[in-house]
Structure formats: structure tokens, C-alpha cells
Amino acid sequence: MINPKKLIKMARKWQKIAAMKRKRITLPRTDEVLDADGCSTSAVADKGHFVVYSSDKRRFVIPLVYLNNEILRELLQMSEEEFGIQSEGPIILPCDSVFMDYAISFIQRGVAKDLERALIMSIGSSNCSSSAYFHQGQSNEQLLLCAF
């Protein structure tokens, strides 16, 4: 038999846990929710990952090690400048999902530092618009250099 005081203490603890879970931050989703590798995801990021949203509200689950990359740090800094630091709500990057796919492919392939710097320099001048980088069927590094 459980002591009534202990039972009350357990009930309060469960109420606190339930209240914390109700405070989860959500963003209305589009019809497609993918991570950086193009896999479908659950509502909560796996251990060692974080979630960002593009300006067109597509969700990206990104490994924490990508924070060491200059491209992602620049995008996060631009997000801070444009949207401010929010304690409530998701991190929204000021670029569309096509650009994010392009930037993530750069990070995954480990491109040369000069190409990385070229992409970073072009981020500020183009507002991360995919039209500056993509034409149907083309997605190589030469296209980026032609965008200047």
C-alpha cells in the first residue's frame, strides 16, 4: 500500500511532466516533412540533431555537427538579424527549401572552402532565393559561380 503523501507527490510530478509536454512548439506543416537526408521525420528531433524551418515552412532535421560549418552559421546569423531570437517558436531560416537542399548538399559533400565562401558571399546579396542558383536539372558548383 502506498502512503497518501507519496501518492500525492507522485501525482503532482506526473502533472508537471504532462504540462511540460503540452508546451511543445509546433509550426503548421506543409504536405511534406523531410530531414536533411530527405527522410520523413517524427515531431521531435533525434538525439544529436536540431530542427529548422525554411521560409516556405519546410522542416529540416540537421545534425549538430553541421553547426561547425560556415554556411549554416551564416544562415543562423541571418535568421537572428531578420527574425530576432525567439524563446517561443521554431528557428526559421530566411531562405527557401530549394536553397536549403543546395546548402545541405554542399555541407554533406564537404566542398572546397573557396566554394563555401562563394556561397556565403552570395547569401547576403540574393536573400537565399533558389532562382539565383537553380535551373531545372542543373545543380552543380559551376552554376553557383555563374550566379555572380
TrEMBL record:
Write the signal peptide boundaries: none
What's a GO biological-process term for it? response to auxin
Among the Pfam families in the record, one is Auxin_inducible
Tell me where the transmembrane regions lie: none
Could you tell me which PANTHER family the record lists for this protein? AUXIN-RESPONSIVE FAMILY PROTEIN (PTHR31175), AUXIN-RESPONSIVE PROTEIN SAUR68-LIKE (PTHR31175:SF111)
What family is this? Belongs to the ARG7 family.
This chain's protein is named Auxin-responsive protein SAUR65
Provide the species name.
Vitis vinifera (Grape)
